[in-house]
UniProtKB/TrEMBL annotation, chain A:
Protein's UniProt keywords contain ATP-binding: yes
Primary location recorded for the protein, binned into one broad class: mitochondrion
Protein's name according to its UniProt entry: Glutamyl-tRNA(Gln) amidotransferase subunit A, chloroplastic/mitochondrial
Gene: GATA
Any one GO cellular component localisation term in the record: glutamyl-tRNA(Gln) amidotransferase complex
Domain Amidase: 60-508
Gene Ontology terms for molecular function: ATP binding; glutaminyl-tRNA synthase (glutamine-hydrolyzing) activity; hydrolase activity, acting on carbon-nitrogen (but not peptide) bonds, in linear amides
Alphabetized UniProt keyword annotations: ATP-binding, Chloroplast, Ligase, Mitochondrion, Nucleotide-binding, Plastid, Protein biosynthesis
Catalysis: reaction(s): L-glutamyl-tRNA(Gln) + L-glutamine + ATP + H2O = L-glutaminyl-tRNA(Gln) + L-glutamate + ADP + phosphate + H(+)
Record-level GO BP terms: glutaminyl-tRNAGln biosynthesis via transamidation; mitochondrial translation
Enzyme Commission number, as recorded: 6.3.5.7
Coiled-coil boundaries: none
Organism expressing this protein natively: Dioscorea zingiberensis
Reported function: Allows the formation of correctly charged Gln-tRNA(Gln) through the transamidation of misacylated Glu-tRNA(Gln) in chloroplasts and mitochondria. The reaction takes place in the presence of glutamine and ATP through an activated gamma-phospho-Glu-tRNA(Gln).
Location of the protein in the cell: Mitochondrion; Plastid, Chloroplast stroma
From TrEMBL, chain B:
Pfam families reported for this sequence: GatC (PF02686)
InterPro entries cross-referenced by the UniProt entry: Asp/Glu-ADT_sf_sub_c, GatC
GO BP annotations listed: glutaminyl-tRNAGln biosynthesis via transamidation; mitochondrial translation; regulation of translational fidelity
Entry protein name: Glutamyl-tRNA(Gln) amidotransferase subunit C, chloroplastic/mitochondrial
Source domain of life: Eukaryota
GO cellular component, one term: mitochondrion
Organism: Dioscorea zingiberensis
Annotated signal sequence range: none
UniProt cross-references to Gene3D superfamilies, sorted A to Z: Glu-tRNAGln amidotransferase C subunit, N-terminal domain (1.10.20.60)
Length: 535, 158
């Protein structure tokens, strides 16, 4: 066996949990009895290493909860048949004393627009019904390398186009907090699955808010990383200059561990960044050693334009309470204006629909997906696409085709790009005066299924809080911060925390402290506390 | 590509024009969007209208290679018109001397990999995903070729 000195990699691999991490585990165990979220991932790791539970026990527990809740939630388009087998392999690895990756034994849900080689990947669309990709997305490959068990593919609005998951070609996912309401979108399945504890963490994608808004609606933590932080290889493209893969967790620590696992440069994504990936979870402060005002010196800017008319009163008061909480933690909160805020929404939709009209031209029934029989090639394309694509997707492709028509570039696409420059500049200015910016993650809480399906502009309006962040490519974290009346136990409200490019570590540190010090709120859907029944 | 469907296209054009009359004309005036969960549509202020020709749905569907059914044209046309008018508000903004941004300026420098051919390691799976593969061609199934399959189905349900 090579000596440790000659092979430093062996040294790293043999490292046992460091003392600070052990202390964190003890803190978490203590906190488990309180209201604050604990790290499911670290609890699983602790249980496996101390032999208190097997991976098979843990996986069976999640699967049985999944099976009981799925008929009501419908968050999964496909559930893997290999979960228990993979859990048994984990148990064998634990017995052999092998090193365990950070996500060992952790059940992860993957949004169905992210390619997985051993499971169907439909993008939520009938045009890809039954499609099995020839490769794993880089993010999925990294999950597997870190020891994760992929439990299944989650439901979404078709190709990521929508804000409620009602646009799925297959089924409508419900909100675990109130089954008559939407979970948000387009990553509604991933958010609902984590909220209902059908899996530990999940991956989503965020083009205009598709991770952050469902995180807010479902009362879970949602992370949209900086554009380029996570490889997009294997993510079915919607709008290539805006798409990112993001994470869901029931706590900030779990989200941080997941983000670390999937981040980093990838030679298969020319837009992926070579920027260093810090160990996000290791940087999170143990609440034991935290002083009374841990955020002293932090300058927080509350985006003024997000308090305008049209935002629910309940959401405003929850977010204002969060701002006071920040002040109690020692930070300085002031209002800041983002001058191009309102223009961001039409600019976003021009850019997104234009890029989508190009990206979705590949779905023509020729190389993959469902093909409609036709007499000649033009009809083959036209009919396959007509049959396989949903009406929201068709609408957006047609809008994009219009905006990119010859002679219209100056009027639409170019102007939207110019507004993009303005939005980037206003964030840059605001982030010079402030360390982070805060706002609601959505102008409302989860609304009823069917409430907005016939009204495209009403649907678009719900994205006002999130699209500007995508235009600027910045990272944003959503943490649950309060409730609004509704459902059986209230409907969750999420706080959005925005930072400069590649400041995920800072956002997670701040979010973690906020989450761990938030009193009087427990973000577990009420039915789950009683048992596994959601009715 | 759609030359054989000229008459169908013409019919679509008529339906499209009818649907616009229902909405209230070509360049309808819609307002600046206000956000919120309910009641936003009643609170719309007056704003700009687009000075460009309105979307010609049958032509756009042709360009996007989507065979739209007549009822779809009727359904989608007013929605698209509404959204395009809402896009029009960008024309009222003074954007002189602002550089357009191609993408987020998050230090993403182009990192292209080497321009060398690599054989993909799972070619069988790529070919397995093709709906109708007849080595070495990707085939187009004609309706006539579907008949034996349909016949077999009919037999099975009798």
């Amino acid at each position: 066996m090579a000596s440790l000195i000659q092979n430093p990699r062996l040294l790293l691999r043999r490292r046992r949990p460091s003392p600070p991490l052990r202390r964190r585990l003890q803190t978490l165990a203590a906190a488990a009895s309180a209201n604050v979220p604990t790290s499911e991932i670290l609890s699983i790791r602790d249980a496996l290493l101390s032999r208190r539970a097997t991976a098979l026990d843990i996986a069976s527990g999640y699967l049985s909860r999944l099976r009981i809740t799925e008929p009501h939630l419908r968050s999964f388009l496909h559930v893997s048949e290999k979960v228990l087998r993979e859990a048994e392999e984990v148990d064998r690895a634990v017995e052999r004393g092998e090193d365990l990756g950070p996500l060992t034994g952790v059940l992860v849900g993957v949004k169905d627009n992210i390619c997985t080689v051993d499971m169907p990947s439909t993008g939520g669309s009938r045009i890809l019904e039954g499609y099995r990709p020839a490769f794993d997305a880089t993010a999925v490959r990294r999950l597997k390398e870190n020891g994760a068990i992929i439990v299944g593919k989650t439901n979404l609005d078709e190709f990521g186009m929508g804000s409620s998951t009602e646009g799925s070609g297959f089924q409508v996912t419900t909100n675990p907090w109130d089954l008559s309401r939407v979970p948000g979108g387009s990553s509604g399945g991933s958010a609902a699955a984590v909220s209902a504890r059908q899996c530990v963490v999940s991956l989503g994608s965020d083009t205009g808010g598709s991770v952050r808004q469902p995180a807010s609606f479902c009362g879970v933590v949602g992370m949209k990383p900086t554009y380029g932080r996570v490889s997009r290889y294997g993510l079915m493209a919607y709008a290539s200059s805006l798409d990112v893969i993001g994470c869901f967790g029931s706590s900030v620590i779990d989200t941080a561990i997941l983000l670390k696992a999937i981040s980093g440069h990838d030679r298969f994504d020319a837009t992926s960044s070579k920027h260093d990936v810090p160990n996000y979870a290791a940087d999170l402060v143990s609440m034991d050693s935290v002083e009374s005002k841990p955020l002293t010196g932090l300058k927080v800017g509350f985006i003024q334009e997000t308090l305008a008319e049209g935002v629910d009163m309940g959401v405003i008061s929850a977010v204002k309470a969060a701002a006071s909480h920040f002040e109690q933690l020692g930070s300085r909160v002031t209002e800041v204006s983002l001058p191009s805020f309102d223009l961001g929404l039409p600019a976003y939709y021009i850019l997104a629909t234009s890029e989508a009209s190009s990206n979705l031209s590949r779905y023509d029934g020729v190389r993959y997906g469902s093909q409609v029989a036709a007499e000649e090639l033009g009809s083959l394309y036209g009919d396959s696409r007509a049959k396989g694509l949903g009406s929201e997707v068709k609408m957006r492709i047609l809008m994009g085709t219009y905006a990119l028509s010859a002679g219209y570039y100056d009027a639409y696409y170019k102007r939207a790009q110019q507004v993009r420059t303005l939005v980037q500049k206003s964030f840059k200015d605001a982030l010079e005066e402030n360390d982070i910016l805060i706002s609601p993650a959505a102008p409302s809480v989860a609304y009823k299924i069917g409430e907005k399906t016939n009204d495209p502009l009403a649907m678009f309006a719900g994205d006002i809080m999130t699209v500007n962040v995508n235009l600027a490519g910045l990272p944003a974290l959503v943490v649950p911060c309060g409730f609004v009346e509704g459902g059986t136990a209230g409907l969750p409200v999420g706080l959005q925390i925005i930072g400069p490019a590649f400041s995920e570590a800072k956002l997670l540190q701040v979010g973690h402290i906020f989450e761990q010090t938030l009193q009087n709120h427990r973000f577990v859907p009420p039915a789950l506390l009683e048992g596994t029944s959601l009715i | 590509m759609f030359k054989s469907k000229d008459s169908a296209n013409h019919r679509l054009q008529l339906i499209y024009k009818q649907s616009l009359v229902v909405v209230g004309g070509g360049a309808a005036v819609f307002g600046r969007l206000r956000f919120g969960s309910a009641g936003w549509s009643s609170g719309m202020a007056r704003c700009c209208s687009s000075s460009l020709s309105p979307p010609d749905l049958p032509r756009l569907a042709d360009a996007a290679r989507i065979s739209l059914a007549p009822h779809e044209v009727q359904e989608l046309a007013p929605k698209i018109q509404q959204v395009v008018d809402w896009f029009g508000q960008l024309q009222a903004v003074n954007l002189e001397s602002i550089e357009p941004s191609l993408r987020a300026s998050t230090e993403v420098k182009a990192n292209p990999r080497e321009d060398a051919a690599e054989v993909f390691d799972n070619r069988e799976a790529i070919l397995a995903a093709v709906p109708s593969y007849d080595q070495p061609y990707i085939k187009r199934m004609t309706p006539a070729q579907m008949i034996p399959l349909n016949y077999a189905y009919l037999l099975s349900i009798l």
